[in-house]
Specification:
Protein name: ABC transporter ATP-binding protein
Structural class: alpha/beta
InterPro entries: AAA+_ATPase, ABC_branched_ATPase_LivF/BraG, ABC_transporter-like_ATP-bd, ABC_transporter-like_CS, BCAA_Transport_ATP-bd_LivF, P-loop_NTPase
Number of strands: 10
Strand content: 25-35%
Bound molecules: adenosine-5'-triphosphate
Order of helices and strands: EEEHEEHEHHHHEHEHEEHH
Largest sheet: 6 strands, mixed
Keywords: Amino-acid transport, ATP-binding, Nucleotide-binding, Transport
Distance between the termini: 35 Å
Number of helices: 10
Helix content: 25-40%
Family: Belongs to the ABC transporter superfamily.
GO molecular function: ATP binding
């Protein structure tokens, strides 16, 4: 297992957002986390990346207990998050944003190699290399956020709603790229409102409801599960 969460609870003041979440992500997998608004998907990502401390439970990554590790040290260990709402630095160029993603790294040759890889995955970013990120379209900013997360050369890539706000054609494209990134050796944990796409691309998935995991299975199993279809796929 690359990642294992055991009985994780998380509080925002008196609000309990996670009620004992247990999940695993195996080396080489794409795992999806689906659920309605407010189910706790983003909160689960924050627990893993260390942006929010957990109240109880444990998180083991790549054989090490990271439950109490600082967020920046988790990046060094190989956990990288592409945040919901994109979060690119608007005053910086595309290239500068990508450079920021590699801030924990020192090997210039490897960084240059990964920059080339990101530009191969996203030719649109290459064309706009020197453009200020604030002037990019929503879809391009989304690509940049994913590209920046890749620049830390993560073992585990956390993607929070990568398809949010994208036109249907771009949604297909971003999922194609996620599969490609995965096939190149990066393990992916994906949070998505777009359950149809997420389940059809993921090896395994978990369904989250009000801070609890209520179902898990292969992407295919969940795609054909009547309750999942009814609640998340818009078909009875
Ligand atoms: P969405 O798809 O709408 O982003 P989500 O599944 O990602 O939903 P979370 O953002 O993880 O849901 O929120 C889980 C619960 O925690 C919600 O009830 C939310 O209101 C609450 N919550 C999230 N962030 C905070 C915060 N900073 N302070 C207080 N409550 C919060």
């Amino acid at each position: 297992m690359l990642l294992e969460l055991k009985d994780v609870t998380l509080l925002y003041g008196r609000i309990q957002a996670l009620h004992g979440i247990s999940l695993t992500v195996g080396q080489g997998e794409i795992v999806a986390l689906i659920g309605a608004n407010g189910a706790g998907k983003t909160t689960t990502m924050k627990a893993i990346s260390g942006l929010r401390p957990i109240a109880q439970g444990s998180i083991v990554f790549d054989g090490q207990d990271i439950t109490k590790m600082r967020a920046d040290l988790r990046v060094v260990r190989g956990v990288s998050q592409s945040p919901e709402g994109r979060g690119v630095f608007p005053g910086m160029t595309v290239r500068e944003n990508l450079d920021m993603g590699a801030y924990t790294r020192r090997n210039k040759a490897e960084i240059a190699q990964d920059m080339d890889r990101v530009f191969t995955l996203f030719p649109r970013l290459k064309e706009r290399e020197k453009q200020s990120s604030g002037t990019l379209s929503g879809g391009e900013q989304q690509m940049l956020a994913v590209g920046r997360a890749l620049m830390s050369r993560p073992k585990l890539l956390l993607l929070d709603e990568p398809s949010m706000g994208l036109a249907p054609m771009l949604i297909q494209q971003i999922f194609d790229i996620i599969v490609e990134i995965n096939q190149q050796g990066t393990t992916v944990l994906l949070v998505e409102q777009n359950a149809q796409q997420a389940l059809s691309r993921a090896h395994r998935a978990y369904v989250l409801e009000t801070g609890r995991i209520v179902k898990e299975g292969t992407g295919q199993d969940l795609l054909t599960d009547p309750a999942v279809k009814d609640a998340y796929l818009g078909v009875a």
